[in-house]
Amino acid sequence: MKVLLINGSPRQKGCTYTALTEVAKTLNACDVETEMIQIGNQAIRGCIACGGCAGKGRCVFDDDAVNEIIAKMEEADGLVIGSPVYFASPNGNLISLLDRLFYAGTCFAHKPAAAVVSARRAGTTVTLDDLNKYFTIRQMPVVSSTYWNMVHGSCPEDVLQDKEGLQTMRNLGRNMAWLLKCIESGKKNGIEAPTAESGSWTNFIR
């Protein structure tokens, strides 16, 4: 079993990385392999709604990390996305990436997912809500913890003092590992994921 972790911060080893590392260490201790991808500080183009990805499972733009992450997600069993809080919302680069990732990719359904956020003070719950919406529209079970998945601090040293925040990250890792093992056990016993209905598209224009 493998979980892919996406660090949505431009800082390679900042607060978001520190939180994700705590999740990853716990998953590893539960015999779950992890890989962390950091999107960096290079510009990531937003979705232009061209529809060119339809039926391909890849974005038509291949000059950033989107298609690389889709390929890695096809092999992964779970996903954790981390973001710092920018003006009470996720990092804009991360949003650009996720819009294209979740629109073009076809590899997300029924894989457990979780969001992790970091902030100096506020905006964390709004950012979590933004990120969780990507999971729910792609039929991904959202993994919870013993508090909202957030840490606080202006630097990694501050985050390491956030004892409850780190505890929340560890409990998140344990819950994800448990759910992954439950899904694996279910598959071994013939329990397959449900097939979603499709074909109904409605709008509210009279």
List keywords for this structure.
6 strands; alpha/beta; 206 residues; single chain; globular; six-stranded mixed sheet; 40% helix; 6 helices; Rossmann fold
Question: Would you mind describing this structure in some detail?
Answer:
By secondary structure, this protein is α/β, with parallel strands linked by helices. It has one domain: Rossmann fold. 40% of the residues lie in helices and 16% in strands. The chain contains six helices and six strands. Strands 1, 2, 3, 4, 5 and 6 form a six-stranded mixed β-sheet that branches. A hairpin with a 2-residue loop joins strand 3 and strand 4. Helix 1 crosses helix 6 and helix 2 crosses helix 3. It is globular.
Strand content: 15-25%
Strands, count: 6
Helix and strand sequence = EHEHEEHEHEHH
- Rg from alpha-carbon coordinates: 17 Å
- Sheet/helix structural class: alpha/beta
Q: Can you say what the CATH homologous superfamily is?
A: Flavodoxin domain
CATH fold group: Rossmann fold
CATH classification, class level: Alpha Beta
**Contiguous runs where pLDDT drops below 50 for at least 5 residues:** none
The biggest sheet, with number of strands, parallel, antiparallel or mixed sense and barrel status, is:
6 strands, mixed
* Number of discrete domains: 1
Average pLDDT for all residues: 96
Helix content: 25-40%
Tally of helical runs: 6
The separation of the N and C termini measures: 48 Å
What's the architecture, going by CATH? 3-Layer(aba) Sandwich
Shape: globular
